[in-house]
Design a protein that fits this description.
The protein is mainly α and 174 residues long. Helices cover 87% and strands 0% of the residues. The longest helix is centred in the middle third of the chain and has 30 residues, at 86-115.
């Protein structure tokens, strides 16, 4: 049996899974965003808990034990708050990403200003405008922007799944 024939069911399964995931991402972007936010909250809770336990176990040997214990407890509390408020998690993440995008936009404008006598700066200016608009949109409504990004990911997964199925059945190159 050829290697292709043995791998064919794997390609078929992978393509179908990608299509299903793509449909889920497209149909339920808000739920996917909330699910990812809950995962972030759970990770922060676990990290805070492990940090607190670690400090407690090494209490006599740590030089900054009180600060480290406070940090672990604060992370645990923040994780619990974020775990039960996924919209807050999305808003905070979106604001951080938005601020980063605004900084990148300003950087692009400063770079264009510095290089305007040497090269064509329109691509740099356009990049700055895109960063600025994305940053403002992210800060204004992170939940909506994350939903749009999730829909785009869903479209990609759907197309990738279809391409896998085409590779298995039509192109025979999987």
């Amino acid at each position: 049996m050829l290697l292709y024939e043995r791998l064919r069911p794997t390609g078929l399964l992978f393509g179908v899974v990608l299509i299903i995931l793509g449909i889920i991402f497209i149909a339920f972007p808000g739920l996917i965003a909330q699910f990812l936010a809950i995962i972030v909250g759970a990770i922060i809770v676990l990290y805070g808990l492990l940090r607190t336990i670690s400090v407690a176990n090494r209490w006599p040997y740590l030089p900054n034990r009180i600060q480290l214990l406070i940090l672990g407890i604060l992370l645990l509390i923040a994780g619990i708050v974020l775990l039960f408020n996924p919209d807050l998690t999305i808003t905070i993440a979106g604001t951080i990403i938005g601020i980063f995008a605004l900084i990148m936009g300003v950087d692009r404008f400063l770079t264009a200003s510095r290089l305007r006598a040497e090269v064509n700066v329109w691509p740099t200016v356009i990049s700055g405008i895109i960063h600025l608009l994305f940053g403002l949109a992210m800060i204004y409504s992170a939940v909506v922007v994350f939903s749009v990004i999730i829909i785009l990911i869903g479209i990609y997964l759907l197309v990738a799944g279809i391409m896998f199925l085409l590779s298995v059945y039509l192109f025979r190159d999987f």
